[in-house]
């Protein structure tokens, strides 16, 4: 325990960095993913194509490379220094948004077409169809993949450690300078991540139970 | 075309869709235009920045980097499939003393970030006197993580098979091993092939994490070439060239997964492994109607 209690300041900073990366990246990913996901299921062919290219290209780019572009190339393009935490958050958001978009699209596609057709047949307008028929059913099937995406995001925050952003991935280097045992530090980091992931899985179970209905 | 979200568009919707389409094009052009303008304004298109690419040694270096990435991927891919089978079968064991520890290993290994595993192997183990080159740290970490994920994939594949398959196997006198190897695994692997390939794409992408623990793979080479000050630090040109290589390799593998998925879907329709659409929750009712004919003989 000494590894943690002797250096509470560093552990606090590291955990805070991870949480900021997770929340910031998560918010960008959810907003952007919602837009891209909507584009991918829209009746506009051009929007579908643009969404498809974005999702397929970014998903087939390593996150490390995406972050490399943002951390090293973007400041050159802008011609000025940018906060590295901000760049890492944007990179995480843009990368994760593709997975959010796919989860949303898959969720919408699980709703049988007949459901919406029946809803339109009884005279509901678009907003009502969405609110009373499609979204309640889609939400249920979106929760598990969406939580997997968020769990992956939580684990991906460590990649920012390679680009001088303080988080749980950098604590090994920081504590090595204070002469701590790297193995013990990293084992503690593993424990923290297992706890964080278990926490998110618990949220997933709660949400699933909340929205479960007897069929 | 009709979908869950929209009907066949009428005249007003057609106009609106065209407007949204034009708006999308404008936004995309604006973003692309901004990037090209900034690239031009910061002098990324000048001959000086691209001069370094006229040396064949630079291309050899890129080739070495790509080869390091691919060799780590090959070893990690094969290793994680082997580990996936071992853990997956262990997870399905009838003996609790095998099943439960394996379940915990899988859960923990899936929860730990790959980068932390790599750091543990590369920075942590030397404390115990075990030193390894970064190549092995990358490969072992990828094997452990992707192996655990593949184990869950395989388990899901086997559990999704109809129970009759297993029972029929026992009925014709096969033992536990025979049922597993001749009946369950071949079907589960075929059903899960797209997911397995998709996980291999993840492994390929994650080799780039080796950059952070100084494994000299493609991203490391990009960074190295990009910081050659005598050649004007061509970081962006190097990132464009190397990044295209990465994306090309990953897209190729994803395309294979996509083709396999399509083939699996087609053969599933003709083959005996056809899932009953009435029991399949994800299937829409319309596909059932299609299977039954044009729907004219449905009760009204």
UniProtKB/TrEMBL annotation, chain A:
It holds the Pfam family BPD_transp_1. InterPro entries: AA_ABC_transptr_permease_3TM, ArtM/GltK/GlnP/TcyL/YhdX-like, MetI-like, MetI-like_sf. The chain crosses the membrane at residues 14-36, 57-78, 84-101, 149-170, 182-203. It is found in: Cell membrane. It is a multi-pass membrane protein. Keywords: Amino-acid transport, Cell membrane, Membrane, Transmembrane, Transmembrane helix, Transport. NCBIfam families: HEQRo_perm_3TM. PANTHER family: AMINO-ACID ABC TRANSPORTER PERMEASE PROTEIN YHDX-RELATED, MEMBRANE COMPONENT OF AMINO ACID ABC TRANSPORTER. Belongs to the binding-protein-dependent transport system permease family. HisMQ subfamily. This is Amino acid ABC transporter permease.
Automatic annotation (TrEMBL), chain B:
Residues 268-300 are annotated as: Disordered. It is a multi-pass membrane protein. InterPro entries: AA_ABC_transptr_permease_3TM, ArtM/GltK/GlnP/TcyL/YhdX-like, MetI-like, MetI-like_sf. Keywords: Cell membrane, Membrane, Transmembrane, Transmembrane helix, Transport. Coiled coil: none annotated. It is found in: Cell membrane. The chain crosses the membrane at residues 20-40, 70-92, 104-123, 135-158, 179-202, 235-258. The keyword Membrane applies. This is Amino acid ABC transporter permease. Pfam families: BPD_transp_1 (PF00528). NCBIfam families: HEQRo_perm_3TM. Residues 66-257 form the ABC transmembrane type-1 domain. Belongs to the binding-protein-dependent transport system permease family. It comes from the Bacteria.
């Amino acid at each position: 325990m000494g590894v943690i209690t002797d250096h509470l300041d560093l552990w606090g900073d590291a955990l805070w960095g991870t949480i900021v990366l997770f929340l910031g990246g998560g918010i960008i990913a959810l907003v952007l993913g919602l837009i891209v996901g909507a584009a991918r299921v829209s009746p506009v062919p051009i929007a579908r194509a643009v969404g498809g290219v974005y999702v397929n290209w970014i998903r087939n780019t390593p996150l490390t490379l995406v972050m490399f572009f943002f951390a090293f190339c973007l400041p050159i393009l802008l011609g000025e220094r940018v906060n590295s935490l901000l760049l890492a958050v944007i990179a995480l958001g843009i990368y994760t948004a593709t997975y959010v978009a796919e989860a949303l699209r898959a969720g919408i596609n699980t709703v049988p077409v007949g459901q919406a057709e029946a809803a339109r047949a009884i005279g509901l307008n678009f907003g009502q169809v969405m609110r009373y028929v499609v979204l309640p059913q889609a939400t249920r099937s979106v929760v598990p993949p969406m939580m997997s995406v968020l769990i992956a995001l939580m684990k991906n925050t460590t990649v920012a450690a390679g680009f001088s952003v303080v988080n749980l991935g950098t604590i090994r280097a920081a504590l090595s300078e204070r002469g701590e045992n790297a193995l013990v530090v990293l084992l503690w980091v593993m424990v923290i991540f297992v706890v964080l992931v278990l926490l998110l899985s618990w949220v997933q179970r709660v949400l699933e139970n909340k929205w479960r209905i007897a069929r | 075309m009709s979908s869950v979200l929209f009907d066949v568009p009428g005249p007003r919707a057609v106009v609106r869709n065209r407007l949204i389409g034009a708006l999308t094009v404008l936004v995309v052009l604006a973003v692309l235009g901004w990037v090209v303008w900034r690239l031009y304004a910061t002098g990324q298109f000048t001959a000086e920045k691209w001069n370094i690419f006229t040396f064949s040694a630079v291309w050899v270096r890129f080739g070495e980097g790509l080869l390091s990435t691919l060799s780590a991927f090959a070893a990690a891919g094969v290793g994680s499939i082997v580990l996936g089978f071992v853990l997956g079968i262990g997870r399905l064991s009838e003996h609790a003393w095998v099943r439960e520890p394996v379940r915990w290993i899988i859960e923990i290994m899936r929860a730990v970030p790959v980068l932390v595993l790599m750091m543990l192997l590369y920075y942590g183990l030397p404390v115990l006197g075990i030193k390894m080159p970064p190549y092995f740290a990358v490969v072992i970490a990828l094997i452990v993580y992707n192996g655990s994920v593949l184990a869950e994939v395989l388990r899901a594949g086997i559990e999704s098979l109809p129970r009759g398959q297993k029972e029929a196997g026992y009925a014709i006198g096969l033992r536990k091993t025979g049922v597993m190897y001749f009946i369950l695994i071949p079907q589960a692997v075929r059903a899960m092939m797209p997911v397995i390939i998709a996980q291999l794409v993840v492994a390929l992408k994650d080799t780039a994490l080796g950059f952070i623990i100084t494994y000299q793979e493609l991203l490391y080479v990009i960074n190295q070439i990009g910081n050659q000050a005598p050649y004007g630090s061509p970081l962006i040109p190097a990132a464009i060239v190397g990044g295209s290589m990465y994306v090309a390799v990953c897209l190729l593998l994803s395309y294979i997964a996509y083709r396999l998925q399509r083939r699996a879907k087609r053969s599933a329709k003709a083959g005996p492994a056809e899932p009953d659409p009435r029991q399949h929750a994800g299937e829409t009712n319309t596909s059932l109607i299609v299977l039954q004919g044009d729907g004219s003989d449905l009760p009204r």
